[in-house]
Amino acid sequence: MLLRIGTSFEPATDLGFLLHKHPDKVQSFSLKQGTAMVWFPVATAERCDCVLHVELDPVALVRGRSPEQRGSSGTLEPYVNDRPWVASSYLAVAIAEVFGTALSGRCPQRPVLAERTLPWSVELPVVPARRGGADLLKALFDPLGWSVTTTSIPLDSLWPTWGDSSCFGVRLEGSARLSDLLDHLYVLLPVLDGAKHYFIGEAEGEKLLRHGREWLERHPLKERIVRRYLMDRSGLVKKALKKLVLEEESGEAVEEGAGKPMRNDALDVPARTPLDRLRREMIRDVLATESWPFVADLGCGEGRLLHLLRQQSRIGRLVGVDVSRRALDVAAKRLRLDRESKSGRVKVELLHGSLVYADPRLKGVDAAVLAEVVEHFDPDRLPFLEASLFGRMKPRLVVVTTPNREYNTCHPELAHGMLRHSDHRFEWTRGEFSAWADRVASRYGYTWRWRGVGEESPESGPPTQMAIFREGGASWI
After folding, report:
1. Residues 37, 54: Cα–Cα separation, whole Å
2. What separation in angstroms does the CA of 102 have from each of 69, 179, 305?
3. pTM score
4. CA atoms within 13 A on the CB side of 465
5. CATH architecture of 2-198
6. What pLDDT, in 10s, does the model give residues 29-58?
7. Are 54 and 86 in contact, with CB atoms under 8 Å apart?
8. Burial bucket for residue 88 (CB in 10 Å: 0-12, 13-18, 19+)
């Protein structure tokens, strides 16, 4: 089994610090059923690759098993299998044992680097994708931001008529923290294989939540991942899914601690609050200045902002609108709308619709929010959005947030001119955003103010910018 992890972040040899392995050495580690070796075939300032090679002993895989487990026919069948060659739970265990510190997100020598999003390429020569094939591979990794390339592997190259096997060569490319990359592999490799070599008990559910909590609750195949990781043990599956739902409702996973300060143990200082959380909290604070009978989150996505806003007593009616039915389904589960009537929270309604057309269901909206929405529109469609929102809907307050393109220089993984998300049609500089806001405010009778969201760079400004529009000459609070 092979796993190759490479990066072009400069100096790329810092990968050795992140993985706690010296690039100039070949290291060997004993595993219960074999041996793992780590080496760096490429280690330069521009490019660094690390290879994890796991060699299993076929006899050790069978040793200790009862005659019933081995089979009583006296054949060699128990000793003949694909375990030593395919990426499976054996490789996941090797990742945890050999790269355990990196998997936990710690790097004493480079603590700040461990928290940075870096560019990665990952190669796995043989990955089993049982009950799903290449489509399953892409469906599992695509939502996590990875570009997936698969290569079919024939059953036997000498007999092409036999067709392809259920295994694929896989290459992943994308940007993430190293700990997130290792978490994805640790959880999803056994899911793809559909088997595990050890007992599945309560601890397995805890491991799944520990390594998947930050991304699993918003994955479109969440339930399928949980079932396959826990080998369809119904009791464990129900318990894991229930914990994920409870954390979504309470905000423990979504809000990373539900308001409790997190700490970077290596530095002994408070860790930075995630940007998306800062953005939601700033929008909440803007709306908290006065009472709003009817608030609409336009382009609400999976309901994270709605989850926060429905706690506000100064909001009467709260509506989320999105063009994606799948996103609205996720939002409905996050908001537990089936239990809404039993709670004292603000009632939330989800609507499927487009923002570029007049919608009578939104008549009378007092405050509207477009959080990270406008950059997903083609520029020639923006006038329709403006006319629908500012012209026909005409709320008293409109809050718009969008990325600040100038800040992209602070992301070394982004090539020159590259946007932060593949679905962004454009990203504005501060000057371009201000020019757009000036034009819209002048045309539709609003005044507006600019605010920055997130820690500012002296040269590039904040990562996110916000415009707060007030109808007519309304006073600012």
Report:
1. 6
2. 36, 6, 32
3. 0.52
4. 25
5. 2-Layer Sandwich (3.30)
6. 888 778 999 999 999 999 999 999 998 877
7. no
8. buried
Identical fold for domains 2-198 and 275-471, yes or no, is no
Say if CB 127 and CB 87 are below 8 A apart.
yes
Instruction: Give 472-475's long-range contacts (Cβ < 8 A, gap of 24+).
Output: 472/445, 472/446, 472/447, 473/447, 474/396, 474/447
Average pLDDT of the residues in 88-93: 85
- Give the containing element (helix H, strand E) for 51: strand 48-56
Helical spans, DSSP H, in 162-292: 178-193, 202-216, 222-229, 234-250, 275-287
pLDDT digits (tens, 9 = 90+) for 311-321: 888 899 999 99
Superfamily for the 275-471 domain: Vaccinia Virus protein VP39 (3.40.50.150)
Q: What is the DSSP string of 61-122?
A: HHTT--HHHH-SS--SGGG-SSTTTS-SHHHHHHHHHHSHHHHTT--TTSHHHHTS-EEEEE
The letter for the amino acid at 274 is P
> Apex CA 85: angle with CA 205 and CA 42, to 5°?
95
DSSP 353: -
CA proximity to 9, closest of 420, 408, 413, 417: 413
Tokens of 206: 């805890």
Q: Reply yes or no on whether the pLDDT at 159 is more than 90.
A: no
Question: What are the residue ranges spanned by the domains of the chain?
Answer: 2-198, 275-471
Most confident range, picked from 126-130, 182-186, 268-272, 356-360: 182-186
The phi and psi torsions of 109 (rounded to 5 degrees) equal -75, -30
What confidence score (pLDDT) does residue 235 get? Answer: 81
Nearest-angstrom CA–CA distance, 86 and 194: 12
106-116 burial, b at 16+ Cβ within 10 Å, e below that, comes to bbeeebebbbb
Q: Whole-angstrom distance between the N-terminal and C-terminal Cα of the chain? A: 62
CA atoms within 13 A on the CB side of 473: 0
* Token pair of 412 as six digits: 């070394």
